[in-house]
């Protein structure tokens, strides 16, 4: 669980960056896709900081989502 005091300190960006490094070390990946809720601006900003780019809006079983892609690994 995230404390409000822990928000906007770069922890998410650091965690995602380290996870990408880990994935590259253990498997040969060409692309990573994420699909945050389009109104979740904090998540979208975090993904953009580590290199994801917006691709398109999609419909998922959970509702509307923003497909983001990281393909420059």
Structure notes:
The structure is a single chain. The chain has 73 residues and is an alpha+beta fold. It has one domain (4-70): Gcn5-related N-acetyltransferase (GNAT) (Aminopeptidase), CATH 3.40.630.30. The protein is 34% helix and 26% strand. The protein has helices at residues 11-26, 41-49; strands at residues 32-34, 53-60, 63-70. The chain has a 3-stranded antiparallel sheet with strand order 1-3-2. The longest helix is centred in the first third of the chain and has 16 residues, at 11-26. The model has no long low-confidence stretch (mean pLDDT 90).
Strand order, main sheet: write it out: 1-3-2
The number of distinct helices, counting runs of at least 4 residues, comes to 2
| Beta-strand content bin | 25-35%
Give the biggest beta sheet: 3 strands, antiparallel
């Amino acid at each position: 669980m995230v404390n409000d005091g822990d928000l906007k300190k770069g922890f998410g960006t650091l965690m995602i960056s380290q996870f990408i490094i880990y994935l590259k070390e253990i498997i040969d990946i060409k692309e990573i896709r994420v699909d945050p809720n389009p109104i979740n601006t904090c998540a979208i900003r975090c993904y953009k900081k580590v290199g994801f780019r917006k691709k398109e809006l999609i419909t998922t079983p959970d509702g509307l989502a923003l497909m983001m892609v990281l393909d420059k690994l």
